[in-house]
Every structure is written in C-alpha cells, then in structure tokens.
Amino acid sequence: MRTVIQRVSRASVTIDGKVKSAIGPGFVVLLGVCHDDTEEDAEWLVRKIAALRVFDDADGVMNLPITETGGEVMVVSQFTLMASYKKGNRPSWIRAAGHDIAIPLYQRFCALMAEATGRPVATGEFGADMKVELVNDGPVTICMDTKNKE
Fold first, then answer.
1. Burial (CB count within 10 angstroms: exposed 0-12, middle 13-18, buried 19+), residue 114
2. For the segment 36-80, what is each residue's pLDDT rounded down to a tens digit?
3. 62-64/55-56 β-pairing
C-alpha cells in the first residue's frame, strides 16, 4: 500500500457535481493498493498514520497525533499512486490491485482508521471520477509505502 498523507484545514470530495463528503482540520489520505497487499499492510499503515505527531501542541510545535486533536480523516482511493514510470513516459498501473483485492482492503483500511481515531472516516467513491479539494495546512505532506517498513 502506498499513501500520500496531507494535513489539511479542510477538504471535500465532489462526484458528479455533488459533495460526497467533507472534513475540517485533519488528514486527507490518498490510498493506493498493490496487488500483493494484505490486511497486515492496512493495519501497519493505520497505526503509523494515527500516531504521526504532526499537529501543533500548545507551544506551536508539531508534537501531537490526530488522535489527540479530534481531527477528521478523509480516505480517497487512488490507484494512480501505484504507477510505474521506469520505461517510457506513459505510466503503467500493472502493480495496482484489481477491484477484488483493492475494494475490501480500502474498506478495511477505512474501518481500521475509524477505530484508531474514534471518529467516522470520510471517503470518496471507489472507481469514481472525483474532484478532491483541499487546503494543505503547513504544508505538511508525508508519503508512506508498506514496502518500505524498515
């Protein structure tokens, strides 16, 4: 699994001109699922993201995890994160998981994130043409990949 995590002051997902979901301060997590990812990958990522100390404490220092700020989380599926760009200029998504693997892992990731934060998780719609709007706060953007755990 590959993620791009952005600390935001607000974000929304619009599909067919209608807002599907919106959040205030928190994280937008763009999630790409690889064909060989497992539930253990989802569990590891959720633990890491929920514990990221990138929110300001009383002294204005990035020292708090989202679990201590009451922040919200939006998770958006994004298979293009699995792009291979080694040959030529047209990306290949051969490593991206098919729907039979990606949808259950995406749903499990969202459920685990809701458990970890104690809040509902906002989502997009798997496979839809989504318009994601966000205001990156900081900016703070962190990439994580379960293939690079060590």
1. middle
2. 999 999 999 999 999 999 999 999 999 999 999 999 999 999 999
3. antiparallel
Active site residue 107: no
Backbone angles phi, psi at 84, to 5 degrees: -105, 130
DSSP state of 126: T
Instruction: Name the pTM for this structure.
Output: 0.94
pLDDT of residue 84: 87
Is 78 tagged catalytic? yes
Domains and CATH numbers, the chain: 2-139 (3.50.80.10)
The dihedral over CA atoms of 60, 11, 149, 90, expressed in degrees to the nearest 10, equals -130
In this prediction, residue 28 carries a pLDDT of: 98
For residue 49, what pLDDT is reported? Answer: 98
Q: Is 3 annotated as catalytic?
A: no
Residue in 78, 117, 123, 146 annotated catalytic? 78
The answer to whether the beta carbons of residues 97 and 34 sit under 8 Å apart is yes
Which is catalytic among the residues 55, 79, 109, 146?
79
Type of residue at 86: K
The CA distance from 127 to 103, in Å, is 9
